[in-house]
Design goal:
Blueprint (H helix, E strand, L loop, with lengths): L1 H7 L4 H23 L14 H17 L3 H4 L1 H29 L5 H20 L21 H16 L6 H22 L13 H18 L10 H13 L7 H20 L5 H20 L1 H14 L3 H38 L15
Helix pairs in contact: 2-3, 2-10, 2-12, 2-13, 2-14, 3-9, 3-11, 5-6, 5-7, 5-12, 5-13, 5-14, 7-9, 8-9, 8-11, 9-11, 10-11, 12-14, 13-14
Length: about 375
């Protein structure tokens, strides 16, 4: 009965497509961090805001998928569903990250020797358990040195716990109060830092809570207050608008611009995306990139670190640099697809069958690193 009900519910393919575009943008942004370290000169200088868009999507999708049925499922099943949806790729990303760190020919034996095998193993165990370990050399104090994007998965887990324990029972008026408080919180963080490419490393760890709480609550508000804007806008236009946000010129201390983008533009794009549909090849593209987004997000960063260390060691000319970057992008997409097709989906299907968990109705957002 419930399986038939889930099949009959609407699936937001356009939101899948927007999530896919955001995941691809993250890959490009991370590569440009090494190619053009000055964000004010990067052609995708606000690419790190994709993580805030992911959190906003997650709030909408979780509300849509679980607001009505979570009380019947119970906390144990809810958390089990979430672990099955998210954690297999955490494990694979950690393994790939460890191998990338140990086998990187450009990182240098000095960094590995400085780290020592105790830190190397401990960082791996922490990555598997989604526990921060920002003390591995050569990774910029990243909370998760083998797979930097896992910082946003930690935030996703935390907000999922808060959703199950608090937000499920929160009346709409108090949801608005929480949204207002979180808006002040993230604005204060942004003003203090001058921007919000924060939360992913040791020194800014607590900033991540402000980012996830505001954007998740914004997405949940769009769902619960039915702020969906019915329209016939083509997905390609919405996708272009989202890319435009990521490519919007970055300036030093432009935190006010970022607050406008995160607080107003992203919820608005979410409301538009949920209110339109896609057909034909556009729909197929949306569905495919939506499926690809999370595996791509969770498996690409070791290649980016390898690319960055290659740039430092080899100092190639611009033509070679862009050629290699194009190859890394293609390889990351291919690896993401292989991970999806032969690991993520089969493992989740097996785990779901083994534990008799109700099938997931959502394809979750790849909550990503900035």
């Amino acid at each position: 009965m419930e399986k038939d009900l889930l099949k009959s519910r609407q699936h937001y393919e356009v939101l899948d497509g927007l999530r896919g575009i955001a995941a691809l943008s993250i890959v490009v942004f991370h590569l440009y961090e090494f190619m053009v370290p000055d964000y004010t000169k990067s052609p995708i200088g606000h690419g790190y805001l994709a993580v805030d868009f992911f959190f906003c999507l997650s709030g909408f999708v979780i509300g849509y998928a679980y607001d009505e049925r979570a009380p019947q499922l119970g906390l144990k099943t809810f958390f089990r569903n979430r672990l099955i949806r998210l954690h297999p790729m955490v494990i694979l990303g950690s393994v790939l990250g460890l191998l990338g760190y140990l086998l990187d020919p450009y990182i240098g034996a000095a960094s590995i020797a400085e780290a020592g095998y105790f830190k190397i193993v401990l960082a791996f165990v922490c990555s598997l358990l989604v526990l921060p370990f920002p003390w591995l050399p050569g990774r910029g104090s990243g909370l998760f040195p083998y797979n930097t994007p896992v910082w946003s998965l930690l935030m996703e887990y935390i907000i999922n716990i808060f959703y199950a324990l608090v937000l499920l029972r929160t009346p709409k008026r108090w949801l608005l109060v929480m949204l207002g408080v979180s808006a002040v919180w993230i604005a204060l963080v942004a003003r203090h830092r001058g921007w919000i490419i924060t939360g992913w490393d040791g020194p800014t760890f607590t900033d991540g809570f402000a980012r996830v709480f505001f954007s998740f609550l914004a997405g949940l508000t769009v769902y619960r207050f039915n702020l969906i804007i019915r329209n016939r806008i083509n997905f390609l236009l919405l996708g272009a608008a989202l890319i435009g946000v990521f490519m919007f010129p970055h300036f030093n201390n432009d935190w006010i611009t970022e607050m406008v983008l995160v607080m107003l533009v992203f919820p608005f794009l979410l409301a538009l995306g949920a209110g339109t549909t896609a057909t034909g090849w556009v729909r197929s593209f949306c569905v495919f990139t939506g499926r690809l987004s999370y595996p791509l997000y969770m498996t690409h960063i070791w290649m980016v670190w390898l690319f960055g260390n290659y740039l430092t060691a080899r100092k190639p000319d611009p033509a070679e640099m862009y050629l290699v970057a194009t190859g890394v992008t293609a390889a990351a997409i291919l690896l993401g697809y292989v991970s999806l097709r032969f690991y993520d989906e089969p493992v989740r299907k097996w785990l779901t069958a083994r534990t008799r968990v109700v099938a997931q109705p959502e394809r979750e957002s790849a909550a990503t690193a900035g």
